[in-house]
Structures are given as structure tokens and as C-alpha cells.
Prior knowledge:
Elements lengths: L14 H5 L4 E2 L11 E4 L2 E4 L6 H9 L4 H8 L3 H13 L1 H35 L7 H18 L1
Antiparallel strand pairs: 1-2, 2-3
Amino acid sequence: MFEKQWVKMPNIITNRKKQMDATVLNPNPNPNEKVTIVRTERGLTIAGTRITLYDVIDHLKAHYPPKFIRDVFNLTDEQLGAAISYIEAHQTDVEAEYQEVLKSAEETRQYWEERNRERFARIAATPPRSEYEAARVKLQQRKVQREATKQ
Length: 151
């Protein structure tokens, strides 16, 4: 009934990153200090979490305060401090890698958008189901009421 389709996804991880997988990175080379940043298959990651430095950079570039970032990702002050220190100490390398991640994410988004374009068009062209007509009318009435109270 259904035929398997093999799909080639855009290359998300570059060869350089593959070679560096599972490398431990520490912004402070003191051997007694706990490792804070590690390289995983996801990229530069805060040790003991699934939070990448790219997630932190997104929030920093959006001008969120550190306390908010810490709370959003459920990090300790030490973890967030280590991430920010690492980003500042290796700014050019981290920024270059961040740009690669953004480019890869955009390529993936475009791929899936193109792949699903026909499906989205079919869904949009499908007439609304009659059994939901009462709910649509009720929602439209509430929308009108809400607009009236705003004015």
C-alpha cells in the first residue's frame, strides 16, 4: 500500500565537527576544575545537559538577561557563567560555528518546506468539515466580542 521513499537530508554536521566529537573543552585549563563545555554530536554543549551554546547565543543575541536564560534552560549560575565565559573566550570560533548551525537549520527548514508544499496545498484546499460548523460559528462570535471589547 505504502511505498518506502528514501530521502536525502541536507548535511547537518560538517566533517570538522565529526572529527572533534566527544572532545572535552574547558575554558579554564586548571586540572582540578570540573569540565563545563563538551563537544557532542549536537555541537558545543553544556556538560550534563542537552543545552548547546547555540541555544544560549540565540537568547543572548535576543538581549535576554542572564537570569532569564538561566531559568529558561534550568541551568545553575555556574553552568551559565561557564557557557558565557567560553563564548567570550572563543568568540570567533564559536561565532563561525554558530553561523554554520544557522545555515544548516535554514537548509533543513527549506528542505522540509519544499517536501511538504504539495501536502500543505491539499490541506488548504480541503473544505471544512460540516460537523465543526457549530464550533466555527461560536469561535467567530467570540472573536467579534473580543474585538468589540478592545475598542
